[in-house]
Amino acid sequence: MYPENLKYSEEHEWLLENNGVATIGITSFAVESLGDIVFIELPQAGTEITQFSTFGEVESVKAASEIYSPISGEIIEINEKLETEPELLNNSPFEDGWLIKVKIADDSEFEKLMSAKEYESFVNAGS
Amino acid sequence: MNNTNTRKLLMDRSADGKVGTTMPSIDVPLQPLPDKKFLRKNLEMPQVSENEIVRYFSSISQMNFSIDHNFYPLGSCTMKYNPKLNDDIAGFPGFNDIHPLQNIDTIQGALEIMFDLQNILAEITGMSATSLAPMAGAEAELAGMLMIRAYHVNREDFKRKKVIIPDSAHGTNPASAVMAGFEVISIPTDNNGNTNLEALKNVVDDSTAGLMLTQPSTLGLFDTNIIEVVNIINSNGGLIYGDGANLNAILGKVKPGEIGFDVVHSNLHKTFTQPHGGGGPGAGAVMVNDKLVDFLPDPIVTKNKTNKFDLSKPQKSIGKMGAFHGNFGALVRAYSYIRTLGKEGINNISEDAVINANYLRIKLKDTLDLPYDRICSHEVVFSAKTIKEKYGVNALDIAKRLIDYDIHPPTMYFPLTVDEALLVEPTETESKETLDEFIEVIKVICEEAKTNPDLLHNAPHNTPNTRLNEALAARNPKLNWRNTIEESN
Amino acid sequence: MDNQYQSTYTPNTPKIKKEMLSDIGFDSYKDLFSDIPKKFRFPDLNLPSPTSELDLKNELSKIANKNSIPGEYSSFLGAGAYRHFIPSVVKQITSRSEFMTSYTPYQPEVSQGTLQAHFEFQSMVCELTDMEVANAGMYDGATSAAEAVLMACRINKKFKVEIVGAVSPLYIDVIKTLTQAIGIEISYNNIETILNDDDDEPACYVIQQPNFLGEISDIEQLKILSNKNNALLIAISEPMFLSMYQTPSHYNADIVVAEGQPFGVSLAYGGPYAGLFACKKNYVRQLPGRIVGETVDSNNKKGYVLTLQTREQHIKRERATSNICTSVGLIALMSTVYMALQGKKGLKYLSELCYHKSHYAAEKINNLPGFKVQTNNFFKEFTISSPIPIKELNEHLHKNKIIGGYDVSNFIENSMLLAITEMNSKEEIDNLITILSQV
Questions:
Q1: Per the domain annotation, does C292 fall within a domain?
Q2: CA distance, residue C188 to nearest chain B CA (Å)
Q3: Does C398 lie in the same domain as C288?
Q4: Chain B residue closest to A59 (CA)?
Q5: Largest Cα–Cα distance of chain A, in whole Å?
Q6: Cβ atoms of B18 and C344 closer than 8 Å
Q7: What does DSSP assign to residue B407?
Q8: Phi first, then psi: what are they for B201, rounded to 5°?
Q9: For the purposes of burial, counting CB atoms within 10 Å of the CB of C238, is it exposed (0-12), middle (13-18) or buried (19 or more)?
């Protein structure tokens, strides 16, 4: 149901780890509850973020939700396409709709994240 | 009404040389104008003839629902009939044409009306004093919270940084609290729809400036824990703000000041029939007990020993809410309404409003979910949760389908604490016939949900526009004639 | 407590109510209030008896006539609210029940009239102010200015505000009220001092053009102020002035606010009015108030909706750009219809007419012994100093059926603001001169 190669947080973010860099986004569950995404507010590259603190906001027509980072580190890239195509989040939340790429500061933080199966149970339990 | 011409904007109807209104004569000798470099070179406004303007605005007006034409069971809005007498009275030149900065001696009539209204609103709410300065309910809420802040600062108690607000509250409550410099602590409602006392006790301490409470609540329920709630807050040194949006339910049935509220506001465009005007103007009177009298917004109207009225600034006033003295036009209408009804009429409002709402509650409790099966006040909250689970039809779909039956949707998805909420407030000005019709329509729609859900998913069908794409409007905002946000990049 | 009163506004008779109560399962309406603690139930309301329409009109018209009415008196009072002519069509359109008794357009399919009219309003405000985006109106000019200050502080994440030159004390009061609780520091300086101070960078500068005393500032100076640093420039202006003079975009204003009342709105002792609020497009997500946007429906037909609603309190709650909910729908419509009627030529003509009249009056007053016009470069309002205190002067004027100007003696000794509009005929102006000359 949720991509197996990703890790997940309780605030419905996902993380893809590759060579010390984490690609981060929000899950299809989060996107579905928000509805049509209209705007994403992201910080600039170079910003330091800490695990489970907010780094931005996703807006739909009827709601606005803060985004919490699943990992600590320095933001090295943001997905510029989202400025003109926020619908990427609705259409491809786990791929083209990625939000930021972060240089991982401490990979022991992964212990606090969930696997795809754990996240699925978490969601079904009625978060 | 599918006249495509109606959608043509003024600039598209404009042509050089068309004249909309006559120009007064230049009866003074012409003066040398400033150098051209100080003047604007162009002003792109339409040029349309008067009758075309009348036809245009008249046609587009007919795309609106309005109280004079449609039933508006809008919970928390009190969409009641707007008496026409009030407009006539507000239109008297002696009220309509006077300037806000005229010498006090020359507008005693205006101040007399305001003074009387101040007293009436204080009497109705069981308070000591009133300011009519706030220009809407939200401004009155801000005033109330600023007063609570000023009260604690005046006592040199600087710890009081937090305000407790139930999660069912109207959005203006936390928004106003934050503008007044507070941190908002949210508490849940219990299963009976009352303030959760345990949760309240857990968060109250000496950093609590106060509590904001709507009574009856946004769930349309009179909070039966109110005495206990008041005790908890008061014993911890906090004050209680009453959101008076639901005053319609309790006029002459209970006075907020008597049960322990320190400050309450009233939305004059809800309870006291200032017409909603498609989004305003409103007016938000704020009433206080003795603790807060000195902090009231500027101005209040006072009367001296010789019966002369004046505008006064309370000793420790939180300041002016607007450039002038409040929305006088709305105040006159509210005053005229209250004087028309008098004691008997005001008492009658809450009776009829509460009967109407309970009637709907009983008649629809087996059609929609009723989260709180108890006597309601002037409004009742239903839920479309079961219908959604069974047929995939949600509150939005039901609401939009009502439009096809010429009924304005109820308040949807509010309060936030009820899933698929439909908050229904009939008001006292609706007849049993209208209510029976509404009941019938809801039942039909719920049948349609079973047999023809697409009809609801795609509703409304009979309006000038079908469901509008709000995502497109937000992603690519086009907010005026000139250009889209993206294009001018 | 049971009363046999029947209001014209409540259709259900006692008989019908009894039936309904029986369906609900109670004998009396009193049972429906059983949740109210007994001690506090059914208090006495000390209110007068109901009054008939005829009697109320008689009573209230007497009270209304206690006031000195501009029209019966000639009036030269301005200072933020101005007496301008309102064409008949404005009242006719805005009295239509479809506009007057409709609700806030949260359900766009049943509110296209309101939404389309607001889109026209926003467009016209953009044209008038020559700014990129405008909202659907705020309570008044003063709260618009205050909300602009809050917006600038949010954008620049700074808490210092600089009020530059003679800004309306009424507006300053409201700015103080709205900023008192959130740690915003306000300072006051004239433009020369600020331009000479390199270090200071507040969240915003607030100017008024023309200023409170009627003086029109040098645009070159305002340009320098605007380009000095990253502080936002907030310009408080006036709609009739904007119809004639160079717009705030010429000095790179970031936010323009104004009182919309002069355009189609009765004086009504101070309200309801409509605050105009416009800004540069890159600040659009920080705008307070409602905004209407164009879109299409499921049949691809053009329509309008409230948009960028996530800024507002009903969604963002404590993180909203403002707590504003009900604002000024019908009043904004009055200004919209007014601007449509006047059109581009009408607004130019009227503003120039006000200019001719005010300058005619000023020259004559300046020639009166003891009087002096204190404003050099003005539009329709200017400051005059008088040989006697303004209180006395206005009493003298009032005896002669003239409502005089606003007392600004705390700015300049024995001075008042005089506003001249198309409503002041040559006869009225000449009469004013005559009465002033008696002093």
A1: yes
A2: 18
A3: no
A4: B474
A5: 38
A6: no
A7: B
A8: -60, -35
A9: buried
Whether B101 is in a domain gets the answer: yes
CA dihedral C392, C394, C398, C404 (to 10 degrees): 170
Cβ–Cβ < 8 Å for C251, C223: yes
Shared-domain flag, residues C367 and C392? yes
Quote the Cα angle for B327-C130-C239, to 5°. Answer: 35
Taking CA–CA distances from A60, the nearest residue in chain B reads: B471
Contact (CB, 8 A) for B391 and B449: yes
Which residues lie across from C186 on neighbouring strands? C161
CB-nearest to A62 from C285, C315, C319 is: C315
Instruction: Please tell me the total count of domains within chain C.
Output: 2
C-alpha–C-alpha distance, residues C249 and C128, integer Å:
11
Measured CA to CA, the distance from residue B364 to residue B264 in angstroms comes to 32
CB contact under 8 A, B474 and A61: yes
Tell me what ipTM this predicted complex has.
0.97
CA neighbor of C143 nearest in space, from C166, C165, C176, C119: C176
Q: Quote the domain boundaries for residue B384.
A: 351-472
If we measure between CA atoms, which residue out of C76, C13, C43 comes closest to residue C431? C76
| Boundary (domain end) residue, out of C305, C321, C338 | C338
Smallest CA–CA distance, residue C256 to chain B, in Å, is: 16
Residue B142 lies in a domain: yes
Asked if C278 and C133 touch (Cβ cutoff 8 Å), the reply is: yes
B171: left (phi over 0), alpha (psi -120 to 50) or beta: alpha
pLDDT, tens digit only, all 439 positions of chain C: 455 789 999 999 999 999 999 999 999 999 999 999 999 999 999 999 999 999 999 999 999 999 999 999 999 999 999 999 999 999 999 999 999 999 999 999 999 999 999 999 999 999 999 999 999 999 999 999 999 999 999 999 999 999 999 999 999 999 999 999 999 999 999 999 999 987 789 999 999 999 999 999 999 999 999 999 999 999 999 999 999 999 999 999 999 999 999 999 999 999 899 999 999 999 999 999 999 999 999 999 999 999 988 787 777 777 777 877 778 999 999 999 999 999 999 999 999 999 999 999 999 999 999 999 999 999 999 999 999 999 999 999 999 999 999 999 999 999 999 999 999 999 999 999 999 999 8
CATH number at residue C362: 3.90.1150.10
- A1 CA: distance to closest CA in chain B (Å): 21
Residue C309 in contact with partner chain A when CB distance is under 8 A = yes
User: Phi/psi at B472 (nearest 5 deg)?
Assistant: -60, -40
DSSP-derived secondary structure letter, C80: T
Tens digits of residue pLDDT in C38-76:
999 999 999 999 999 999 999 999 999 999 999 999 999
Across the A/C interface, how many CB contacts are shorter than 8 Å? 16
Q: Is B323 on the interface with A (CB under 8 A)?
A: no
- Contacts (Cβ under 8 Å, ≥6 apart) of B141: B172, B173, B176, B212, B241, B243, B265, B284, C323
Sheet of strand C133-134, all strands in order from the earlier edge strand to the far edge: C133-134, C275-279, C255-259, C232-237, C204-208, C160-164, C185-189
A7-124 CATH fold: OB fold (Dihydrolipoamide Acetyltransferase, E2P) (2.40.50)
Cβ <8 Å between A59 and C310: yes
Cα(B333)–Cα(B267) distance, integer angstroms? 13
**How many separate domains does chain B show?**
3
> Who's near C246: CB < 8 A, 6+ residues apart?
B37, B38, B39, B40, C219
- The CA-atom distances, in angstroms, between C99 and each of B357, C19, C59, C95, C116 are 27, 36, 29, 7, 12
Which helix (H) or strand (E) covers residue B446, if one does? helix B432-451
Is residue B64 domain-resident?
A: no
Other CB atoms within a 10 A radius of the CB of residue B115 amount to 19
Exposure of C315 by Cβ count < 10 A (0-12 exposed, 13-18 middle, 19+ buried)? middle
Chain B contact set for A37 (CB, 8 A): 471
